[in-house]
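Protocol step 4 of 6.
Sequence for Coagulation factor XIII A chain (Calcarius ornatus) entered exactly as in the expression construct, tag removed. Do not edit the line below.
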Amino acid sequence: MSETTSTNEENKLPLNGRRAIPPNYSNDEENEVPEMEAFGVIPRGFNPRDYLRVVDIYMFKEPQEINKQEHHTDKYYNPKLIVRRGQAFQIQIDFNRPYQPQSDQFWLEFLMGRYPQQNKGTYIPISVGSALKPGQWGAKIIHRENNSIRLSIMSSATCIIGKFRLYVAVLTPYGILRTRRNSATDTYILFNPWCQLDAVYLDDEKEREEYVLNDVGIVFHGNVEDVKSRSWSYGQFEENVLDACLFLMDKAELELSGRGNPIKICRVASAVINSRDEDGVIAGSWNNSYDYGVAPSAWTGSVDILLEYYSSKQPVRYGQCWVFAGVFNTFLRCLGIPARLITNYSSAHDNNANLRMDFFLDDEGKVDTRLTKDSVWNYHCWNEAWMTRPDLPVGFGGWQVVDGTPQETSDGMYRCGPASVQAIKHGHVCFQFDAPFVYAEVNSDIFYTRMEKNGTQVVENIDTTRIGQLIVTKEIGGDGMMDITEEYKFREGSDEERLALETAVMYGVKKQSIQDTTYQPQTDVDMDFQAQKAVLGNDFKVTITFRNKSRNSYTATTYFSGNIVFYTGVPKREFKKHSFSAKLEPSSSSSFDVVIKSSEYMRDLLEQASFHFFVTARINETGKILAVQKAVTLDIPTLRIKTKGELVAGKEMSVVVEFTNPLKQTLENVTLRLEGPGMLRTIKKQFGRIPMNSTLTWEVKFTPMRAGLRKLIASLNSDALRHVYGELNVQIQKP
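Step 5 output, structure tokens:
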């Protein structure tokens, strides 16, 4: 007797006074499902073989078969059935004898997790009826032949997404007979942007192809005057990536019952993409040293990062904003949520959402680096995900900002969003989540403030146009840039813009009015600053231009400061100081050149080859100060990629990657990466060194399996030179 009691104890749930069952947030765990569930005492002579019995279940799960074709899931490298919710799919059941509807009764059961419950959407019994209702669970027989029936099954348009286990249950007088656990019939159910009843429904086919089905994208970087682009492989269809994405939701401890809601999924994912809380996917590093990890610039896509995390369960080192955004985009597209990667140029990292970035000047008008704590990022990448927002008033659905880069905490965790782009544009920052933070990223003003000896602050200059002056994403169906600034803000200086700002202030965004400070700018002189397009390792010149619009002669004492910066605008070192006196004749323009030599910057240059120039000029006659700042990014040489031989699916082809070292020094610890989504998994090769002016050549042979237009992406990384990329579109022919 004692033995049986002990096993009963083991099968009981752990006792917990607060909830009847433990939290259910693992898609992987399973419960035991009995093959025979008896109604009472089973009489002698009962033989389950006398009743209707399932011999086989056929799932039509091959890429070329009806289910994956109709559900746009044929690209997933996954042998199991993958369907989208709210849309019918087919299966075939073979019984041991013909099915007789009058006397036989069977139903399907979809289960998820360890503690399936019908009211939580984790246990779904489906009986066979005569008609399917749109967007609701149901099944009907569409074909009967011999011992087989073919079913059309409709899933709910709001059901939870993830991997379900399928059982077929048959009713007998003495109990329920079920099929055995068979992982071959596991069914993944994803979001469905093609279904009007789904919260992520997108009505434009071209947009669905781009934002759900495209597995390669473009990251725009550089700065607003010099936009640069590179490819990124999302790889949402690659082997094991879907399982890795489902694991992220387990890791974030999102209850299974909440996984039908794209708002919840985005919110928890924005926290789990970074490692700042609970050991998420990517560890960020902005300090230019990447020991025991991969430099952020070396990654060519998301797949390596997600698969490494899925197997090691430890944060992958290292990422910066575009890496967090690239992996987040893969996660969203993989689950079926339309998503795109956004770049905001001159992005304000504002610590207290007060719409004000302070740059402090000393007595002479030079920038005081000791007091200045705010930084303007050359660019910052985040994501937009498409969904309805039933939790907000009508009109705030559509694109939502989500950001996985750890910047500020939100409700105690490093996460950001989803915040409605429409709400940000109109200043309705009261609507969750984190809208004031995003509003400040695109709308802050730069204040140049001079500290008097007695501690009072004098505002010398205000720049209202620099922050968020260009917001872009990849165009639909091409590699070009689409300007979406107008989706985030009204035209600078328009009435609508002023109204949106007043609304944001009313809802708690802090904005100091100009009236609070003494501010009388010099309005009759303009100062501008241009930099020559410059290649890494070369000298270049910058030009400062004054335009005197008055009838007075002025002299301007001008200070020029060149800083080597991280792309986040944080300075590493001032490498160039220059001051001069400029004579400004009435009603005329005058220009002054400053030459920047490569010997001045090469030693300390950081990986994105970014400079930040400050120019301040004091008009001696009036004591007023003009100020301008500019980011300059040098051109970094690219990798050359070419193919050799025939490009035919199933035939070996070869790719050659070449690079010539342009620097006046030897490159040490060189690593090359090459990846072709849907064609070639990432391969790495290490080269010791490349002497100056030498060319490195690397040939890779592989066999592409599928025909179609594909992209090869390569990156080079070394101690002295990073952010070196190359790409090539290749058309693989059918054999």
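Step 6, annotate. The CA atoms of residues 262 and 650 lie 39 Å apart.
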